[in-house]
Amino acid sequence: MNEMKYTDDVLKKVQEVELSILDDFIKICEENNLKYFTVSGTGLGAIRHKGMIPWDDDIDVGMLRKDYEKFVEIANKEYADKYDIVTAGMYPDCTIFNAHWSKKGTAFRDRNALNVTYPTGIFLDIFPFDNIADDDKAMHKQGKRAWTWQKLMIMSLNPKPVLHFGKVKNALITAVSYIAHFGLKILGFTPEKCYQKAMKYLRMYDDVETKRIGFFCGTQPFTTIHARSDLDPLEEVEFNGRKMYMPNNMREVLTNLYGDYMQLPPVEKRYNHAPEIVKFKDED
């Protein structure tokens, strides 16, 4: 499968839009005392590049669930003329369990989102971190069940997902998806029911002050977990000329993930795949 690459000009414009969205996000957080922190490659970019990784095309931030919900409420009330909030539960065919805060008048559509009904503008990724079990066995049970129900939600909507693996793996996953899709229909598991099941496990410790927090509904369930103490205090960091915050153990996390994370990848790997459609607000 041929993947599109960005031109330098288009990537620069995408990054500029995302940074402008980030500025509004930070403004809301500062005005309402909401805690946020860098997630994934955004933390790496902050440390290694003092901003976005030059070839990256997204910004990822995390929030505790209560702050995340407060942000969504404020954004929908005060910024609805400028942005759309997109997440599972808001649109019947949306299966992402984080939020895309996307700029109205723009477009950013991957191949798997060409026919969706929800807004798909250039966006900021916002991840809600839930309380997760202190006991490792209970935590793995919680995470696997939440993750599985989210994947079943995807299969209940689409028997043939867009995949980017090798030919054999794509064929195997497609076969499993077809079986799951029609099996879920027969058993009466609608996308909404799958969503509710996933949320049940994600939020099963809402009323418990657990020692850990996590986001289970990514590509893998156990790669985005923090001790609560990692956020107390947060570490201030420079990000493209603005102030952001990251977990206080981010360097340790990056070392575990990448080893010498300050080492740049080979030149031939310094790129990102462009979406099928990119449109900016000043374009027809």
TrEMBL record:
Residues 29-259 form the LicD/FKTN/FKRP nucleotidyltransferase domain. It comes from the Bacteria. It holds the Pfam family LicD. GO terms for biological process: glycoprotein metabolic process. This is LICD family protein. It comes from Kandleria vitulina DSM 20405.
